[in-house]
Amino acid sequence: MYRCQVPGCDRTYSSASHLKRHEKSHSQEKPYICARCGRPFLLAHHLQYHERTHSGEKPYVCSHEGCGKAYSQPGDYYRHLRKHTGSTPYHCDVPGCTWKFIRGRDLENHRRKMHDNLAI
Predict the structure, then answer these.
(1) Tens of pLDDT along 5-24?
(2) Could you say which of 15, 25, 42, 87 is the most buried, measured as most Cβ atoms within 10 Å of its Cβ?
(3) pTM exceeds cut of 0.70
(4) What DSSP state is assigned to residue 24?
């Protein structure tokens, strides 16, 4: 695990590249600006997702029979698909703990709340 070294930040990541991307969030630089409302963004794809709040575009449509839910962001779409499949790819690795999660962030929160005193 790669842990953010900024004081007060307890975020951890499974890869160095994800940590590096996160570290940019501590910078004040946000070079991507929404043309409609002026909101600044750190990453270009975040601006792209934000612009969909103005347009209402939801290009990620569930193809599961009878569902048809649509999403503006791919992460929301893929998380939704796991509800249909029952997939819980994020498993707690603390011995004896059997908790599983749909989202990685939920696993991080679980570790903090339930296993914070353990060295994992």
Answers:
(1) 999 998 999 999 999 888 88
(2) 42
(3) no
(4) G
Confidence of residue 103 (pLDDT cuts 50, 70, 90): confident
Please name the amino acid found at residue 1.
M
Residue type, 65: E
Give, in order, the Cα–Cα distances in Å from 60 to each of 33, 64, 94, 114, 116: 24, 12, 35, 34, 36
Give the burial string for 17-56 (b: 16+ CB within 10 Å, else e): eebeebbeeeeeeeeeeeeeeeeebbeeeebebbbeeeee
